[in-house]
Write a structure and sequence with these properties.
Cobalt-precorrin-4 Transmethylase, domain 1, 5-stranded parallel beta sheet, 5-stranded mixed beta sheet, 22 strands, about 35% helix
Length: about 525
C-alpha cells in the first residue's frame, strides 16, 4: 500500500456507505488485529455500532468519536436484548437514515445469528451488506498451534454447535457422520462437552483421539487444554475451563507440540495495564499483543484544549519570527499541525525556523508532515535537550516551546539561562478521568494483573490518585505482585518519590524500549 492516508484508502476500498444501510460485520475471534480491512473501513464510516460480548471492545475506537455505541451482547443464559427486539432496532435505525454496523464476534453467518438478522432486514426492505469475519474454529486452533486440516492427517473439517437451540424437540446433529470427520470443532460447548464426546465415541470415534479445549482463543488470556476425547470433559471440569471456549477433536491436535507459536511468545500469559491516553494507547497495546500479552486500557489522562487556546494561535501567526521551535511530545506536533491548518498556514510559514524535538516518536511525527528536526537529544528527556542548547550560541535567540500545561520548567529555565528569549506556551491541557475502568479494578483485586505501564509522571500520579497509594501498595507486595514499568528516569523518580519502585525502566525512553525492558524482565521477575 503506497497511499499514506490510511483512512482515505480504507474508505475508497470499501466504497460509499449509504444512509439507511446495515452492515453485518464479523469482528473476528478476539485479537483486534484480525478484523478485516473492509469491516474496519465500515466502522470508520458508521453512525451507530451495535456490538456483541465477543467483539473486542477496542474495535469501537475505529468508529467516529460521535458515533453511537450500543452494547447488545449475549452471554450463556443471559440475553441483554432479545433477538426479535434487536432485529427491529436494526430496522428502525435504518429507516431513520442511520449508517449502522452490527459488529458480531467471529463471523456473522457462523453460529452468529447473522442469518436471522439479515432475514429481518430483507423482509423490511432494508439495504444490508455482509462482511465475513475470521471464525473462532479456524483462528483459535491456529493460535494454539493446531491446523484444522493437514494433508497427512485429514482433509475434512466440520463446524458444529455445542449448544443447540434448547427449544428444539430433537437434535439434528448427525454424530455418526461427525465420527468419520477428520477434525470436528464444537462452538459454545463447555456445558455439553461430556455429552458431545460420549456421542462421538458411541458412534465409532476412537476414544484415544486427541482433543483440545481452547479458552479465549487469540487473546493474551488464551488457555489450551489437551487430552483425549474420552477424558477431555473431565479434565476441563477439573481445571475450571469456562466459556468462551472452542473444542477441537482430531489427530491434528497432536501437531500442537511442534506448532505452538502463540503461547511461546515472551509475554504470553501476562496481563498488562496501559495508562496512556486512549488515542495514544494503540502503539503500546499492539506491541504488547505482538509479544503475547493480554492488554487492559486504563487511561489516566486525556487531552483537552489549554486554558488559553488563543495563545497558541497568536504564537503561530508570528512563527517565522522565532529562531527555534521546541516540541516535547507527539501531542505538541499534532497541535502545531492542526492549528496551522486552521489558520491557513503551511510549512512555508516556518521560514528558516529550526526544530528541536524530544524523543524519536516526536521526531518521526514531524517527518510525517515533511518537517525534519534539527536536534533530537540522545536521551529523550528535557535535561538532555537543555544540554544540547548549552553547546550552542543561544544569546538573544527567540524560542517557542509548545508543550503540555503540566510540563516541568527545566527546559524553559535552561534556555533562559543560556540567554534565549523563550515563549513557553501550553499547547494542550491534561485532565484526569473520574475513575479507573471497573474491569481493570476487578482484575487488580483478583490478582491477575502482572504489569502497569507508565509513560509519563502524570500517568503515574493520576493512577495513584484514582486508585489510592495504599491499595496499590497491597498489589505490588503480593505473592504474585503487580510490577510497575517506567518509560524513563523522570517517570521513575516520580514513582520512587511516592514510595514505590519500578520493576523496569526503559533504556531507550520510547514505547519499543519500554516493551523491550518488560520482555527482558520475563514472567518470573527481573534479575
Amino acid at each position: 500500500m503506497t497511499n499514506p492516508n490510511v483512512s482515505t484508502w480504507l474508505a475508497e476500498l470499501a466504497g460509499p456507505f449509504e444512509p439507511g444501510t446495515v452492515v453485518l460485520a464479523g469482528a473476528g475471534p478476539g485479537d483486534p488485529g484480525l478484523i478485516s480491512l473492509k469491516a474496519a473501513a465500515r466502522l470508520s464510516q458508521c453512525d451507530t455500532v451495535l456490538y456483541d460480548q465477543l467483539a473486542n471492545p477496542e474495535l469501537l475506537s475505529l468508529a467516529p468519536d460521535d458515533a453511537e455505541r450500543v452494547y447488545v451482547g449475549k452471554a450463556a443464559g443471559l440475553h441483554s436484548v432479545p433477538q426479535d427486539q434487536l432485529n427491529q432496532r436494526l430496522v428502525d435505525l435504518a429507516h431513520a437514515g442511520r449508517r449502522i454496523v452490527r459488529l458480531k464476534g467471529g463471523d456473522p453467518f457462523v453460529f452468529g445469528r447473522g442469518g436471522e438478522e439479515a432475514e429481518a432486514l430483507a423482509a423490511a426492505g432494508v439495504r444490508f451488506e455482509i462482511i465475513p469475519g475470521i471464525t473462532a474454529a479456524v483462528a483459535a486452533p491456529a493460535y494454539a498451534g493446531i491446523p484444522v486440516t493437514h494433508r497427512d492427517w485429514t482433509s475434512t473439517f466440520a463446524l458444529v454447535t455445542g449448544h443447540e437451540d434448547p427449544t428444539k424437540a430433537d437434535s439434528n446433529i448427525d454424530f455418526a457422520a461427525l465420527a468419520r470427520i477428520g477434525t470436528v470443532a464444537f462452538y459454545m460447548g463447555v456445558r455439553n462437552l461430556a455429552a458431545n464426546c460420549e456421542q462421538l465415541v458411541a458412534n465409532g470415534l476412537a476414544p484415544d483421539t486427541p482433543a483440545a479445549v481452547i479458552r479465549c482463543g487469540t487473546s493474551g488470556d488464551q488457555r489450551t487444554l489437551v487430552a483425549t476425547v474420552s477424558d477431555i470433559a473431565a479434565r476441563a471440569a477439573a481445571e475450571g475451563i469456562t466459556p468462551p471456549a472452542m473444542t477441537i477433536i482430531g489427530r491434528v491436535v497432536g501437531l500442537r507440540d511442534r506448532l505452538n507459536w502463540f503461547e511461546a511468545l515472551p509475554l504470553f500469559g501476562q496481563t498488562v495495564v496501559i495508562t496512556r491516553t486512549r488515542h495514544q494507547s494503540s502503539a503500546l497495546a499492539s506491541r504488547l499483543r505482538a509479544m503475547g500479552a493480554s492488554v487492559l486500557e486504563a487511561p489516566t489522562i486525556a487531552l483537552a484544549p489549554p486554558d488559553n487556546p488563543t495563545a497558541v494561535d497568536a504564537a503561530l501567526k508570528r512563527i517565522a519570527s522565532y529562531d527555534w521551535l521546541v516540541l516535547t511530545s507527539v501531542n505538541g506536533v499534532d497541535v502545531l499541525v492542526d492549528r496551522m491548518r486552521a489558520l491557513g498556514l503551511d510549512a512555508r510559514a516556518l521560514g528558516s525556523l529550526k526544530l528541536a524535538a524530544i524523543g524519536s516518536a516526536t521526531g518521526q511525527r514531524l517527518r510525517e508532515h515533511f518537517l525534519e528536526p534539527d536536534v533530537i537529544p540522545e536521551q529523550f528527556v528535557a535535561e538532555s535537550l537543555a544540554a544540547e542548547f548549552t553547546q550552542r550560541d543561544m544569546d538573544g535567540k527567540r524560542v517557542l516551546m509548545l508543550r503540555a500545561d503540566i510540563a516541568r520548567p527545566a527546559l524553559r529555565d535552561a534556555l533562559r539561562g543560556c540567554g534565549a528569549m523563550c515563549d513557553d506556551v501550553a499547547a494542550y491541557a491534561t485532565i484526569a478521568p473520574e475513575a479507573l475502568p471497573a474491569a481493570v479494578l476487578d482484575r487488580l483485586e483478583a490478582g491477575t494483573v502482572d504489569w502497569i505501564t507508565f509513560t509519563s509522571s502524570s500517568t503515574f500520579a493520576n493512577f495513584v490518585t484514582l486508585l489510592g497509594a495504599e491499595r496499590l501498595r497491597t498489589y505490588v507486595t503480593r505473592t504474585r505482585p503487580v510490577r510497575l514499568a517506567s518509560i524513563g528516569p523522570i517517570t521513575s523518580k516520580t514513582i520512587r518519590d511516592a514510595g514505590f519502585e519500578p520493576a523496569v525502566e526503559a533504556i531507550e525512553h520510547t514505547i519499543p524500549g519500554l516493551v523491550q525492558a518488560m520482555r527482558e524482565c520475563g514472567s518470573d521477575g527481573c534479575a
